């Protein structure tokens, strides 16, 4: 993995290059920021750049030396990966990362954007919550006690240190306070508030921001042959996360179904067709709780976008082609007199459905309120 393989984050890359150029590389670094922006890939690129024996003039690993080839094949002996795992049935002691090394390599090979849910799904124990156990610290102590083999530095790339249990965190604190010579920790966190404060205070932190919408849109157009408007609409919804953008694309067929339900609701409510709205409420309920909550999430986004559409500033409106076709005529019905109450109505319905409320009753109540709010 090279810096050039990772979109955006130019300031962080510049800072890392400076560390290597001056020889002032902190023994513990934390890359923190939202999920799905490429933090783990950046950690890998940084490790490869540190180990590279012939970096190019532009400040990147050469990709050709022995160390680079070993990094790219995930076989560099001076690099250790730590990641949360699951204790499976039959295990007498809590596992370490090495117990799942093959599974891990297959999972993240070629990935730029890491997904904890996707990693958890690779375990046979479903609905599992991967964590890092105290046994990991003992395994690391054993590894780091030996001198490096190929390069000057031994590097530990630690994914999601916030998922350590308290005992493991306290053991790691000792490793950071009294590090082995020429040993570097590069940690990658989605939620740095979950890291033990005494560890957090002892690492040099590099905060990474969300990805720009145009970067996400370009990736969607390249990978999925989307047109520019649809790609930008998804990018806006994703709020800077490539993972969220991919998930929205994956469920784009779902969104079309939700748009159809939204249009039905608004047209029937405007026409005050109570009997048809009762059928609409039952049909939505039949989709199940998860689809209903996602429908109301979708509905709140569409209400916001229709309200914004009234400002006649296309640059801040993010609708795909199908949504735009409907909203161009519908948006005047969403205004300062009803937008807040509509949002509250849909948000309350979403929360009531999630709390196992009766979907048919909740959905019909929404429909009646929409009738009154569209007057």
General description of the model:
By secondary structure, this protein is an alpha/beta fold. 53% of the residues lie in helices and 7% in strands. The protein contains 17 helices and five strands. The protein has helices at residues 10-22, 39-51, 66-72, 101-108, 116-120, 135-144, 166-177, 197-200, 213-224, 228-238, 242-250, 252-271, 274-285, 289-309, 321-330, 339-354, 359-373, and strands at 28-32, 79-82, 154-159, 183-189, 204-207. β3, α7 and β4 (183-189) form a beta-alpha-beta unit. The longest helix has 21 residues, at 289-309. 39% of the residues are buried.
Any chance you could write out the topology, listing elements then pairs?
Elements: H1 10-22, E1 28-32, H2 39-51, H3 66-72, E2 79-82, H4 101-108, H5 116-120, H6 135-144, E3 154-159, H7 166-177, E4 183-189, H8 197-200, E5 204-207, H9 213-224, H10 228-238, H11 242-250, H12 252-271, H13 274-285, H14 289-309, H15 321-330, H16 339-354, H17 359-373
Parallel strand pairs: 1-4, 1-5, 2-3, 3-4
Helix pairs in contact: 1-2, 6-7, 9-10, 10-11, 12-13, 12-17, 13-17, 14-16, 16-17
């Amino acid at each position: 993995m090279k810096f050039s393989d990772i979109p955006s984050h130019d300031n962080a890359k510049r800072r890392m290059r400076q560390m290597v150029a001056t020889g002032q590389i902190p023994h513990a670094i934390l890359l923190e920021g939202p999920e799905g922006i490429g933090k783990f890939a950046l950690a890998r690129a940084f490790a490869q750049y540190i180990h590279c024996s012939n970096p190019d003039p532009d400040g990147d690993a050469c990709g050709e030396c022995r160390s680079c080839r070993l990094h790219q094949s995930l076989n560099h002996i001076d690099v250790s990966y730590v990641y949360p795992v699951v204790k499976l049935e039959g295990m007498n002691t809590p596992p370490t990362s090495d117990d799942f090394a093959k599974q891990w390599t297959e999972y993240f090979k070629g990935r730029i954007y890491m997904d904890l849910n996707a990693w958890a799904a690779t375990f046979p124990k479903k609905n599992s919550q991967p964590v890092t156990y105290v046994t990991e610290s003992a395994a690391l102590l054993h590894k780091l006690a030996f001198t490096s083999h190929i390069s000057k530095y031994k590097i530990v790339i630690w994914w999601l240190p916030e998922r350590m249990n308290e005992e493991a965190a306290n053991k790691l604190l000792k490793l950071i306070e009294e590090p082995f010579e020429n040993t570097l920790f590069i940690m990658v966190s989605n939620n740095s508030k979950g890291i033990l404060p005494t560890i957090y205070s002892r690492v040099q932190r590099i905060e990474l921001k969300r990805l720009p919408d145009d970067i996400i849109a370009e990736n969607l157009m390249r990978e999925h042959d989307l047109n520019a408007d649809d790609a930008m609409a998804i990018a806006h919804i994703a709020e800077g996360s490539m993972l969220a953008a991919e998930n929205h694309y994956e469920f784009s067929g779902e969104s079309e179904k939700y748009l159809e339900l939204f249009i039905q609701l608004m047209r029937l409510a405007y026409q005050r067709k109570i009997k048809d709205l009762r059928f609409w409420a039952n049909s939505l309920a039949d989709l199940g709780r998860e689809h209903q909550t996602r429908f109301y999430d979708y509905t709140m986004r569409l209400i916001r976008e229709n309200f914004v559409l009234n400002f006649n500033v296309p640059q801040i409106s993010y609708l795909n082609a199908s949504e735009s076709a409907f909203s161009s005529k519908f948006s005047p019905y969403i205004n300062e007199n009803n937008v807040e109450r509509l949002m509250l109505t849909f948000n309350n319905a979403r929360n009531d459905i999630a709390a196992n409320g009766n979907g048919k009753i909740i959905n019909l109540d929404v429909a009646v309120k929409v009738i009154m709010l569209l007057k």
